[in-house]
C-alpha cells in the first residue's frame, strides 16, 4: 500500500474526483499478457452517436446492444459534478428479495479503478443495521470482532464496516457478497486512514450514494492476505479501538461481477461520443462478461493493454514516466501533472485554447508495443458554467502523493469507445487477463 496525502481541492460541490484505488493490490490478479495481439492505437471510436442528440445537444444516443447482461448507465447533473458515471443497484439482506429487507440504491459511481461495492450508510439507513456483520479477521484471536475497512483512493478514503449483502445489478445477482458500508459512524477512524485526505463519506460527496468497483480483480487487497497493512483492514473490539489485521481473501470486499453465476469474467463500458463543447447528459451501457454472449465479443482489432496486480500500466508524457497509470471511469478528468497548463483554483485545466496532446502507454511488464494515445484538454471551468455535465476534454492538474507517479485516463477517455476490463487470469480468445482493451 502506498501512503497517499491529499492532493486535490474539493469544494462543497464535487470538483475534481480521482477514484483510482491506492490500496494493497487486487486479489486474483497476476501478470497479464498481450498474447499475439498486434493491434495499434486506433483513434476512431467504435461506437459513434446515433439517434436523438447525435448533434451534441441535450439528448442521448441509443445504446447499441440488448441482453440479460446489460445495464443502463448515465452521466447527468444528479451526483453533484461533471463526468460522474452512475448506475443503480439493489441491496438485500442475504437470502431475501423483498421489502423491507431490500433497497434500491441509485447514484452509484461506476468505477473501473477499484474493487467492490461500497455504499454510504445514509443511502440505506433502515437496511444497514439488518446486514450481516463480517467477523473473523486473521489476527483477531476472539474471532468475533467486527471487521472494518479503510479504502484509500486518489482523492481521499472511505471508512466503514464490512457487511454481507445480496447485490443485484440489472438481472445479475452476487449473493452473500462482502461489501463496505462507509461513513456508518460505528467505529472511530484511525489516523492511518484519515491521513489519506478527504472523507468520501462527507457532505462534499452527498450526491454519490456509493461506489461500484468493477476493476480487473476479484478482491480488493491481495497484500492484506499476507500483511497487516496500516490504513487498510481492521478488527474493532470496541468503538474507539481498531487494530490493523491480515485478512482471508474470502472475507475481503469483493467485485460483484466475479460472483455472478455467468458473464463473470469482466465488463464493458459503452458510452457514445461527446462533442468538444460538451453535452448536458449521456446514456450508455454497462455490459457484463466478455466473449460470453453475442453482444460482448472482444473485437480482433481491439487494442489490448496488460495491467499489473494493482491494475496499473505505464504512461509517458512530456518526458515523464508514470508507472501507476489507469483507465479509470471513476475519475472525472484526464488527471495528470503539467504545470505548463493554466489551472483554476480547484485544479481544473483552463487553457486559453483547446490543447491537442498525446502520451505513450505500455504494459508495465514490458509486453506488447508502446501505443501513442491522443487526447485533448479544454477550459473545463467555462464548459461547466454552460450547464454541461458530460465533457470529453476535461483535464485536471493532479499529483498523486505529491509525486509524478500517476496518470489517470478518466471518464473523458471512455466517450465514444467500448472499454473492456478483463478480470484476473480470465482467458478471452488468445488473451489472458488482467487487461484492459478498447
- Helix fraction by DSSP (H/I, runs of at least 4): under 10%
Low-confidence stretches are 1-13, 29-63
Report the radius of gyration as a whole number of Å. 20 Å
Q: What portion of residues belong to β-strands?
A: 25-35%
Number of helices: 2
What is the secondary structure topology, with strand pairs?
Layout: E1 70-75, E2 85-92, E3 102-111, E4 115-120, E5 132-133, E6 147-153, E7 156-169, E8 172-182, H1 191-194, E9 210-214, E10 233-238, E11 241-244, E12 266-271, E13 282-288, E14 304-306, E15 313-317, E16 320-327, E17 334-336, E18 355-362, E19 371-377, H2 380-385, E20 395-397, E21 408-409, E22 417-422, E23 427-428, E24 431-432, E25 435-437
Parallel strand pairs: 3-9, 4-8, 16-21, 17-20
Antiparallel strand pairs: 1-2, 1-13, 2-3, 2-7, 4-9, 5-7, 6-7, 6-10, 7-8, 10-11, 12-13, 12-22, 14-25, 15-16, 15-18, 17-21, 18-19, 22-25, 23-24
